[in-house]
Amino acid sequence: MTALILAHGATGLAGDGVPSALLYGIVVAGTVVGALGLRARGTRLLGGPAVPPLSIDGVEAGPWPGDGHRAAAPVGGAVVGMAGLVALLVVGWAGSDQSGLNPLASTLVLLWWTVPVLAVLLGDWWRLIDPYDAIAAGIDRLRGRPGPAAALTTEPPDDEVFEAGDWWVPAALVASFAWMVTCWLEGQQPRNMALWLTALTAVMVVGAVLGGRAWVRRSSPLAVLTGALAAASPIDWSTGRPRLRSPLVGLAGRAGGRRTAGVVLVLLGTAFWEAVSGTQWWADLIGSGGTGGTGAALMWSTAGLAWCILLAGAAWVATGALAEAVATRTGAPPLDEPLAGDLALALAPFAAVALTAHQLETLLITAQDVLFYFAADPLAEGWDLTGTRGWAVNEQVLSPVVLAWTRFGLLVGGLGLMLAGSWDRLAARVGKAVVTAGWVLAGWTAAAGALALWLLLGA
């Protein structure tokens, strides 16, 4: 396994003398109490009326934040995004071919760990600076295609045109990066990572030429992922300027579908894999032949990642199907759209915090490398552009106790958002049947929380 990707147990909690049973009790009892409180509300929605479920993937992502801003905001965002993409490609191909001297891998991994959780905390800011949207906008202008405002006023001729069978594209692109950094030992070598980023850029450019800006907005992996995560944010970027709101209002105002579920479940499955791959159980399973840079190790890791993603997806789909079956048996009419896709928006914040919680310690170390050492000498030419080349990395930015409780707090917050958000969506779909069917969601929340805590405590 790549040394940079390690699951870190929350040793501070155990070191504080806090019994593991108490922590599990907090998660399970908190879920039960939360479900009882939600059940007492009946069909009254915490987030207000929910939008109807939509399976048309072109509508799923909601309004693009830059479209509602003054011209300076989207132009400034495009400049930032494009400058960042060009800089990463330059250092990837022109910088050192040694991973310890090239910032590309560390920067991309840092974005992978931080952008999802920052989308939950700060809202839909990534789509404002997404470089591939800027590239697609330029291509559309050259080809004389209408802008996003005109496109939004056009009724889709039918579902097939908007859906086009490409709902899986962003999930596959996210999974490809997860494979690079968690399965292939050489994946984080600068040239290999530069090749991946170049290939992604080529896919987006070809997609923009053939399908236009609308295709890129449906398929740009981080844009689709952060758009879904931002629904649970307390900051709303959909109007002319950022404003505060209840996260549950944001979740109620967005419709999920297969595209959303795909990227969210890949994120959740990858977080699960990063934790599982660091357990003694996994080490015993693969044995000595499954470690190092061997072909067997690559096969084991690839199978492990795929297994974790498929297991997370199957469990979530089964939870949605069970909730729907219980609701139907208690009087709700049959649903036109499956619950798993629509409720995936509520699952998204839990997936984001699960990834960040398990990598928090490594994240803090990597951030120092990127912001201080690599920023001073990105091409390994002996420069000191920022005066921080001699920065000594602090490997203990947070004490073990603070680190452990921060992880636990992230976990509890993600579980709370998931339970309340999914309960609201279910109540909007099945009405009074939520008082019974909602216990299925509570069971999922308790089980997911217990599993995440078990992995967090070191498994």
Description:
The chain is mostly helical. It has one domain. 67% of the residues lie in helices and 1% in strands. It is built from 20 helices and two strands. It has helices at 11-15, 20-40, 57-60, 72-94, 104-122, 126-129, 131-142, 148-152, 159-163, 169-182, 190-219, 221-229, 247-252, 258-276, 280-286, 295-329, 339-358, 360-376, 400-430, 434-456; strands at 235-236, 243-244. A two-stranded antiparallel ribbon has the order 1-2. Strand 1 and strand 2 form a beta hairpin. Helix 16 (295-329) crosses helix 17 and helix 19 packs antiparallel against helix 20. The longest helix is centred in the C-terminal third of the chain and has 35 residues, at 295-329. It is globular, with a radius of gyration of 22 Å. The two termini are 18 Å apart. Mean pLDDT is 86; it is low at 1-10 and 150-162.
Concise summary:
This protein has 459 residues and is mainly alpha-helical. Helices cover 67% and strands 1% of the residues. It contains 20 helices and 2 strands.
Radius of gyration: 22 Å
The largest β sheet comes out as: 2 strands, antiparallel
Low-confidence stretches: 1-10, 150-162
Shape, please?
globular
SSE order and pairing:
Layout: H1 11-15, H2 20-40, H3 57-60, H4 72-94, H5 104-122, H6 126-129, H7 131-142, H8 148-152, H9 159-163, H10 169-182, H11 190-219, H12 221-229, E1 235-236, E2 243-244, H13 247-252, H14 258-276, H15 280-286, H16 295-329, H17 339-358, H18 360-376, H19 400-430, H20 434-456
Antiparallel strand pairs: 1-2
